[in-house]
Specification:
single chain; 150 residues; alpha/beta; 5-stranded parallel beta sheet; globular
């Protein structure tokens, strides 16, 4: 099994959840879990106020340039950072609050960036959402036709 190359970033509202997700993902065992990861952390690195578009840009640029396959972005609600991410070409960012929406955003939208709300999502919820996102696969077919129109 190969490891997903994931870029992760957040603003101050997502810092604590980002830290928990990084630890969770780094604990993945490639022999017993359904996937493993290599993580590149683009910040932020504390709870001092910062601007979420800067972190969305850094994560999205590494994906479009081929440095990472996927991204995880987190701000207080997940809304602002998902808007910022979707401004970038070839980025399909989905804001997810449940494992079901995380799986569907990969299956139907071929999302390459998972967005989360750090003040809306507990660490335990985030782990289930992240697992659903990275174990789902794009279904293609009728969904590809729709993506081609984007």
């Amino acid at each position: 099994m190969s490891a997903f190359k994931i870029a992760i970033g957040c603003d101050h509202g997502g810092y604590e959840l980002k830290q928990a997700i990084v630890l969770y993902l780094r604990s993945k065992d490639p022999f017993t879990d359904k996937y493993s990861v290599v993580i590149k952390d683009f910040g932020c690195y504390d709870t001092a106020s910062v601007d979420y578009p800067d972190y969305a840009k850094a994560v999205c640029e590494t994906i479009t340039e081929g440095g990472n396959e996927f991204g995880i972005l987190i701000c207080g609600t997940g809304i602002g950072i998902s808007i910022a991410a979707n401004r970038h070409i070839h980025i399909r960012a989905g804001l997810c609050y449940t494992p079901e929406t995380a799986a569907l955003t990969r299956q139907h939208n071929n999302a390459n960036v998972l967005c989360l709300g750090g003040r809306q999502t507990t660490a335990e919820q985030a782990y289930a959402i992240v697992d659903a996102f990275f174990t789902a696969q794009f279904e293609g077919g009728r969904h590809q036709k729709r993506l081609d129109k984007l």
